[in-house]
Amino acid sequence: MIRLDDKAIIPIGCSCINQFQIEFYFGKERCSGLPFQWTIATPRTSVEILEAASRGALADLFFDRSDFEMDGDHMRNRHFEGFYHWHEDAAAVLDREAEDFERFTRKMAYLGENMCAVDGPVWLLWSNLQPNLRQEIEDNTRLDWSDFRLTQMRRDEFARLPGQSIGIRASSLSDARRISMRSCGTKARSC
Predict the structure, then answer these.
(1) Which residues of the chain have pLDDT under 70?
(2) Is 52 exposed, middle or buried (0-12, 13-18, 19+ CB in 10 A)?
(3) What is the pTM of this model?
(4) Rg of the Cα trace of the chain?
(5) What DSSP state is assigned to residue 150?
(6) Where are the domains of the chain?
(7) Using CA atoms, how far apart are residues 118 and 156, in angstroms rounded to an integer?
């Protein structure tokens, strides 16, 4: 996420290249992490994650080792068909003897707290622009490339998000959705 004046831009979707670009163009000092950071997710899954946050159920879906599985070389959250932790050392995180899973859950709690602390206008930034993404998805996931495309119907799902989604209130704009957020607590579990 990047903060610009009183606004926040939250990159969501199917390309972690957003994070590289945000840090390059705006500097790491203006960035803070969120649960979507360094992941790939389908539009449907992105909406499901925001809906789970609105129900206060997000934290419960990320803190049990049984919530995750290997899908190829990547870690996938079982609760969401299309949510991959693309840059985690999945084998180490899921190793029952390793402390890496505890580190991973602490990181997810921290990222969840960042998401809940956002206050003010927010823009959701969707991207699938990474040049090798289609091939990576076809080679390394059980999903099709078409699952990761942002169609008009999938954009409309974002527009229908309930007003209470992690404090989100959506208002229509032409091609983008401007989102207003209020703080949803200081602990990730409150989301």
Answers:
(1) 15, 116, 162-191
(2) buried
(3) 0.77
(4) 16
(5) -
(6) 2-190
(7) 23
